[in-house]
Amino acid sequence: MSHSTPRVGFVSLGCPKALVDSERILTQLRAEGYGISATYQDADLVVVNTCGFIDAAVEESLDAIGEALEENGRVIVTGCLGAESHKVLDAYPNVLAVTGPHAYEQVMSEVHQHLPPLHDPHIDLIPPQGVRLTPRHYAYLKISEGCNHRCSFCIIPSLRGDLVSRPIGEVLQEAENLVQAGVKELLVISQDTSAYGVDTKYRTGFWGGKPLKTHIQTLAEALGAMGVWVRLHYVYPYPHVDRLLPLMAEGSILPYLDIPFQHASPRILKAMRRPAHAEKVLTRLQAWRAQCPDMAVRSTFIVGFPGETEADFETLLEFLQEARLDRVGAFAYSAVEGAAANTLTGAVPEAVKEERLERFMAVQAEISAEKLGRMIGRELEVLVDAVEDGMSVARSYRDAPEIDGQVLVEGVALPVGERVRVRVTHADEHDLWATPL
Ligand code: SF4
Asked: Is 229 exposed, middle or buried (0-12, 13-18, 19+ CB in 10 A)?
């Protein structure tokens, strides 16, 4: 097969529990950029989720594996029959791998091994480390594909096309399946989360027998009712984002907003052709914080964009000082093949870009240290990601996995995947330290 996108075929057999496993694996495959193929011929490999409950189910599963091998040749077996791997391997020694039921992590690592994901830092929503594998307790929920904007440094619209929102019923069903499979945190991703539904004219869909508008507010409300952490990424500050604030203030979704501002100089924002660049961001931030004082705002910035003068850069630093953002990522501009910005004049020399990036990060490090320092003594709910060398590594509502900081609890093994309450004892410019309550 020769696709730009690696494609996986999927055969799902068995009971509703196996179906939930299949949906979890499919969700993760999609979030990591794999295509799902409807035919054997079009797939680079096939995952067969089997059933081994009764003899007839074993027969059916073995037949399905045989068919997939014959039609495609590259097969990973998972599910209940996989628990008795000899039955599979005796019949089909040439399968790529066999894993047991509810072995979502192993299936994904076998897929990675036999069909590595394509990771393109310019178009992927999940951080490169995230491709590794999300643990069982959090999952990315992709709500749309493509983008209606045409930012001059970005090639996503030419690669992925205009915005296509997934039906709200389908998204919510996927979210519910994930929650049933043990997910405690849903990370909502898309290229432009606040634009969800624009392409469908906010069409009414259905879920749980109820009509629901394809709209980010409706989606956030429904996800918020599922009792897990809901974190929104890539939210542009369109006016209707204000309507999400009450949900954050009342605690039904996390008071965390990931808004990629990219710059603050109006001239540069215009050259970048950024969405919502004319919104009065500082005033909005102030109003949001008045409504939800604990809100954590994360953003990303590009320094050294073509034409950026020292004055533009200073405007950006002033914005940073005033905005007091909680989490910030920054990059020195680098041209992406095919991007409109490549034709702009006024390239900033590499040394200047690097120097600006350092100055930018130094300003933010101070802000971040001051903001985290203010957390000392506070009580927080954290989600435990891992226990390493006797230390529990957790995150609070302020920390998205892989990209933000952590809450470290030394000398105690807290239950992984569970939410626990801690008190903050210490902080640096990235992370917090805490003791359990
Ligand atoms: S909003 Fe801009 S940067 Fe984001 S995907 Fe769309 S075109 Fe690219």
From this structure: buried
